Write the structure tokens for this entry.
Amino acid sequence: MKLTVLLVARILFMVPFLMIGMHHFMMADKMVGMLPSWLPGGIVWIYLTGFFELAAAVAIITAIQIRLAGFLLCILLLAYVAFLHIPSMMSADPSTSMLGLIGVMKDTGLAGGALLLSHIYTKKKSA
């Protein structure tokens, strides 16, 4: 039973990352406007982060390198918070500021989930 619950939990957690990762490739030209103007590289970041999200989703769903994938996904999500959402929160436009706050809360929670997932699948060391 526990194994089934963990499998379902991994799948549910990763479905958004699969969808958003694919979205990074299909809608990259529209997403590039979300990047801070000071960040060099433009659309390359959209493709790169999409690849990382897809790779993490596949790794976690297939149980290959879950610990590493969860940890790296946590770092990616915290980078989104720092470089995308917090600057949006500082906007003078109330709608943009609210969307930034929502992004901070969402990605902080997802980062915590990714970190928890990586901890759950840490190999036990023998005493």
Summary: The helical segments are 2-26, 28-31, 43-62, 66-89, 94-120. The longest helix spans residues 94-120. The mean pLDDT is 90.
